[in-house]
Specification:
Blueprint: H1 7-12, E1 14-18, H2 32-35, H3 40-49, H4 57-66, E2 71-77, H5 103-113, E3 117-123, H6 146-151, H7 155-169, E4 178-182, H8 200-203, H9 205-215, E5 220-221, E6 246-247, E7 250-251, E8 254-258, H10 276-288, E9 291-297, H11 307-323, E10 343-348, E11 353-358, E12 365-367, E13 374-379, E14 388-397, E15 402-411, E16 423-428
This protein binds alpha-D-glucopyranose (GLC).
The site of alpha-D-glucopyranose has 8 residues, from loops.
Amino acid sequence: MGKSDTRWFVHDRFGMFIHWGIYAMPARHEWVKQREEMSDEKYDIYFKYFNPDLFDATQWAKIAKQAGMKYAVITTKHHDGFCLFDSKYTDYKATNTPAKRDLIREFVDAFRSEGLKIGFYYSLIDWHHPHFTIDSLHVLRNHPEREKLNQSRDMNKYREYLHNQVRELLTNYGKIDIIWFDFSYPPRPNAPADWVGKGRQDWDSENLVKLVRSLQPHIIMNNRLDLPDQWDFLTPEQIGVPEALTVDGKPVVWEACHTFSGSWGYHRDEESWKSVDVLVKMLIDCVSKDGNLLLNVGPTARGEFDNRALERLKGIGEWMRYHSRSIYGCTKAPDEFKAPNDCRLTYNPETNRLYIHIFSWPFKFLKVDFGDRIEYAQLLNDGSEIPLQKIKYPYVRTADKEEEIQMETLILPVKKPDVCVPVIEVFLK
Ligand code: GLC
């Protein structure tokens, strides 16, 4: 693990995930073909009519940038096998739809010129390729003639296709900063007896890694190739991580990926959208545990971010405009600093500043048990001073007596500042 230099990645902390493909048309989850066990013929209707006439990559890049995102990872191909890029190894690609163009090329050009780093998601799984064998996750998993169909499938041919496409992606688009493979599902000890999955042998992960690193030696690679120690970062998905991640007791680089609503691809009727408040807290929580956040947008079939996504991105951007100092270049706080009640801490080792993110606004007094380390404190949104005082808390009970204790306390305004998560910037001695 940790083959590449991840310093920029760890510094930047916040990226945009983009799941886009012809599944934006059924608009009911990117796994729709698999979930509904649709035949190729049925699914082809989307290929036939895919026409994102409003797609403007520059607009996407500007929106990502305004939200405070520093890099973006896009699905060059998802599990349905459809390629947004112009691959010479398949006809199943955007250039052959009414879109008629290499959408990845436009994405790369636009995001790069806005100064964002470029990541490619590539699905190892492929439910379109005729030689991808039918396994327990495949669209045809329940087909009565599954075994017979598999006899004419040759994974060697699919593997070759996979390696060829990765070579194309890492050769034809200039410098690529991140490669994000998805995903392996080898049989696990507790899997049902008839479970058929795929893993490192199916992808020839060892050689795939060599190929990737030879074409783009600086690239940062995720951990879904089913190889225990070849990755640069871990990818907890749609889950809050309880503490900074470690492997064999050593801290590792990690990036949580999350959706706005539960679906990665555009989902018209999904209503469980997270609020701006929750999303901002998710970002802070990741950084406070030494992680990154990759937040997903599922653009529509016409090529736009819908209003629900725009509203969230705008809200996050408003918060980031004032508070990005507590995110970029920040890490988990050194152990000597304990987060006060309802707070998360981040720390910038270069400036030696500590950031207290207040998730629930208290009444006036924020006790800090590292008060003697504070030289000066201010609210980050307006740079207004937050005084530090030794306050007497008279009614603290110990086992057998009432005692007066004194504690360093930050004195907050009674009224919560008008930002979703207020932050106190602490200049340490
Ligand atoms: C899962 C899903 C997939 C999504 C990915 C993002 O692996 O299969 O649809 O692209 O998560 O992490």
